[in-house]
Amino acid sequence: MNITIRKYYYGDIPDDNSGETANSSPEGGGREGAWPLWEVFIRSKQGLDHKHAGSLHAADARMAIENARDVYTRRNEGISIWVVESKYIHASSPDEAESFYEPAADKIYRHPTFYDLPDEVKHM
Amino acid sequence: MSMQLPDHENTFQHKIDVEIKVEPKDWMPEAYRKTLVRQISQHAHSEIVGMLPEGNWISRAPSLKRKAILIAKVQDEAGHGLYLYSACETLGTTREETINDLHSAKAKYSSIFNYPTLTWADMGAVGWLVDGAAILNQVMLCRTSYGPYARAMVRICKEESFHQRQGFDILLTLSRGTAVQKEMCQDAINRWWWPSLMMFGPKDSESTNTDQSMKWKIKRKTNDELRQQFVDMCAEQVRILNMILPDKDLKWNATTQHYDFGEIEWNEFWNVVKGNGPCNKQRLEARRKAHEEGEWVREAAAAYAEKRKTKPQTPKGALAAA
Ligand SMILES: [Fe+2]
Ligand SMILES: [Fe+2]
Questions:
Q1: Which one of B1, B10, B311, B319 counts the least CB within 10 Å of its CB?
Q2: ipTM for the predicted complex
Q3: What's the predicted TM-score (pTM) here?
Q4: Which residues of chain A have a CB within 8 Å of the CB of B209?
């Protein structure tokens, strides 16, 4: 008997160690009729901003809010929820990040530490 | 050293080396993406299939309190599955594909969930040992290099610690009970101990491929390191239960400052991975059945959403509403 043992970590069993035969899934994986993806933002308490908490699938906005309540606020993590369909989120491109944020890099005079004032100046 | 990596791969590895997290839209090697998709989806499936052995006892929990706790725990696991499926989607897979891969048995999940839960004491042993082993792995994964995976782990870890504590609490209660209850407690520990050790995967020395996951900082500790940490913890905790771990080789080693422990039955492990565990068939059938029987609910919700489109749903803009 010859067993080839390949290392894998918890939650990472190699594909080729599958003992059962895999039925291939229908092409596209049944995308048809799938509920859209929503991004969830939660205000944890009065006075704080809404913060991205995660995402989920739901048929419509109301269901997205209800599911977000069930998933992301089970331990009083929130008092207000925003949901937005993921396709409406536009993002800056990481490939252009360097040039895109470059203009801020050389404006050190925007920071209070740029100004060297005498010690006698108080409360500033 | 001798191998020349293409420029972008160098930049990528450098980012990993200096602990900059990788985010979904960043460039990443195809193999990194593939490894993550496989690992995160297996992790997600483990959370979902993991609900089954415990769900088995919800209707038979010994008190209303225990029942409420067990429902809450199982519900948490569903949430964990969702966080992980979402993290997986950020890598460009669809939810349907991922779930279909589970149902077609193409994707794997943790073998531990292919063992049956025979008595109420198993709810204690699962919480203490299975969640305990998962926590060690997940605490490490809070520092994994892929941002969405790491964030999902932070959320999960916050919720996990109650899981382990409620399990230990069940065992503690049984360990202070009647002779029969004590026996149940020891029996559950006996059955869950070795499979829990197997959860960490094969021994480091049996590795034949290079350790790319460690280099990419997807994983940050080896199987043996985590397993040793687990043994050291449990060997102490079991004393509080006045029970024993079923390993005659288990003993404190003053030189290594760790507990030595016996050899794991690796044939059993691979057998369960390959689909021949006590409950593999049952688990997959339960998942497929739930999915198929939920079809009409998904259809009805979609139809209802379509109908509601004619009416405004959210009052004005979210900013104004909040
Ligand atoms: Fe979990
Ligand atoms: Fe858990």
A1: B1
A2: 0.86
A3: 0.87
A4: 6-7
